[in-house]
Amino acid sequence: MVFSNKSLQFITVLIIACMPFISVANPATDSIHTATTSVKEEADHSEANAHAESAEPKDIKTEISEFIAHHLMDSYDFNLMAYKGADGKQHHIGFPLPVILFDNGLQLFSSAKFHNEHEIAESNGNFYKLHHGKIYKVFSADGALTLDEKHHATNPKPLDFSITKNVFMIFVVALIMFLLFRGLAKSYAKNNSIASGVGRFFEPIVLYVRDEIAIPNIGEKHYKKYMSYLLTIFFFVWFLNIFGLTPLGINVTGNIAVTACLALITFLITTFTAKKDYWGHIFWMPGVPVLMKFVLAPIELLGTIIKPFSLMIRLYANIVAGHIVLMSLIGLMFIFKSWLGSSLSFLLSFAISLIEILVALLQAYIFTMLSALYFGSAVEEHHHEEAH
């Protein structure tokens, strides 16, 4: 694909114009994530407010660290941007998400009740408080959290099935994928297997996953039953990675719970579709002395668990590391406060942003490729003779 000079100039100007929005998206202090409070501050709201007013302002390095930590966290509302008003306070633009708890029955309410960590949400006579991104139960409208010496809450936590920001984005990506491939299938049926519209861009990618990932690793005999999963996982991870590069503070694939679930699905599909040859090579490897078989069997069995574990860690670590590096470089612009240092930080962060776009696609490719490789090993047919 060849780009003209005018196209490259337009893309460069567009990206530079969008960069300032990064500084206002998802600030370190939002409507539901604030600094740690002490036991006395939890018990007395007025004392906490007085303490906050008299506290010394944080230095820029601390604010940047909190900003990065907040960006990597999930949240119970979707914060689009924030700005500092004439009153000197932060004003947030976004929307709340539903909080779904199971505690003395089903509890359903809006996250807007958690305006900050000094307010308590009430639902059907039950009271809940948000502390460091987690919901704890308190026993009255004026109840306080019980904190240990490490400032960890010891109150009971209800079963939490809330629609958080990460869950919301999973639904959004699922809807995008459904509409995208539904339109692609309709264009195939309407135009005699010829894609139209936006499907012309995605059709070569679908064919690439089939011809370069599924068939070589699984084989032409068995690849079709795995194609739906491989296509789903490829575009799901890719789209979420791309959303993670926007100034919206989305970090779904940087959440280890999400990558663990994706790896677990690959593990279950591999386990329940594997043929007897696959298990035979694990528990009783042919062509190996009997004593060695007893040694190799637990090692091979452990390998079946290590494979999905590596899938989980690889995707999680690469995405989180990319976000931390990129946001640290952006933060350097506010530390240097000079045209030379800030310009160098901007150019470096711009270059890393371009690399992260490639990494977003590369991580989707690697996850899909390794999943196909595991599926191929599960259905591979071995033709060998035992040594006598």
How would you describe the overall organization of this protein?
This protein has 388 residues and is mainly alpha-helical. Helix content is 57%, strand content 11%. The protein contains 11 helices and 8 strands. It has a 3-stranded antiparallel sheet, with no helix packed on it. Strands 5-6-7 form a 3-stranded antiparallel sheet, with no helix packed on it. Strands 1-2 form a two-stranded antiparallel ribbon. Helix 5 packs across helix 7 and helix 8 (256-273) runs antiparallel to helix 10. The radius of gyration is 26 Å and the shape is globular. The termini are far apart. Residues 1-56 have low confidence and may be disordered.
**SS element count, helices:** 11
Give the distance, in angstroms, between the N- and C-terminal Cα atoms: 58 Å
Radius of gyration (Å): 26 Å
Mean pLDDT across the residues is 79
From N to C, what is the helix and strand string? Answer: HHHHEEEEEEEEHHHHHHH
- Helix fraction, binned, reads 55-70%
The geometry reads as globular
Uncertain ranges: 1-56
- The number of E-state strands comes to 8
Give the strand line-up of the largest sheet.
4-3-8
Largest sheet: 3 strands, antiparallel
Sheet-strand content, in percent, reads 5-15%
What class would the helix/strand composition place it in? mainly alpha
Task: Describe the secondary-structure layout.
Elements: H1 5-18, H2 39-43, H3 45-54, H4 60-72, E1 77-84, E2 90-96, E3 98-102, E4 106-110, E5 120-123, E6 126-131, E7 134-138, E8 159-160, H5 165-190, H6 199-218, H7 224-243, H8 256-273, H9 276-283, H10 290-336, H11 339-379
Antiparallel strand pairs: 1-2, 3-4, 3-8, 5-6, 6-7
Helix pairs in contact: 4-10, 5-6, 5-7, 6-7, 6-11, 7-11, 8-10, 8-11, 10-11
